[in-house]
Write a structure and sequence with these properties.
- It contains 5 helices and 4 strands, in the order αββααααββ.
- It is of the alpha+beta class.
- A hairpin with a 2-residue loop joins strand 3 and strand 4.
- Helix 2 runs antiparallel to helix 4 and helix 3 packs across helix 4.
């Protein structure tokens, strides 16, 4: 009898989707008509915390100038960035893998100016000198 080999990579790499948020007793707290990825909530929360801590001086300045604008931005910016992260797939990859690949390329090929010779980085020889010899 031949042995079957199963590939679970597609199933395990699939994103987690959330359609309802319930309490332990079963009461519905939030219900989404379209399921939302778990990464949306993670990115939304991280951007919101970043805005509440690091960007606080800018947001307080906006609040003194235009009161409602800064409050609207506290929802709009995290929502747009979270949707961008969870819905956009540049080059067929998710945004995290795309950014990791981009920064690896940036550091290995753009910033590092050494030449690649036989799969190793070597210093570039700027000046070549040929000497005339007699045979």
């Amino acid at each position: 009898m031949e042995e079957l080999i199963y590939d679970y990579a597609k199933g395990l790499s699939a994103p987690y989707w959330i359609q309802e948020v319930r309490t332990q007793k079963g009461k519905v707290l939030l219900s989404f008509s379209v399921p939302v990825q778990l990464s949306y909530f993670v990115v939304f929360f991280l951007v919101l915390v970043f805005m509440l801590t690091i960007c606080q001086p800018i947001m307080s300045l906006l609040y003194t100038m235009i009161g409602g604008l800064s409050l609207a931005l506290y929802f709009y910016i995290p929502n747009r960035l979270a949707r961008l992260y969870s819905e956009v797939e540049p080059d067929g990859k998710n945004v995290l893998h795309y950014l990791v690949g981009f920064f690896r390329f940036l550091f290995e090929f753009i910033i590092n100016k050494k030449a690649i010779y036989q799969s190793e980085r070597v210093d570039v020889i700027e000046e070549l000198c040929f000497e005339k010899t007699t045979l």
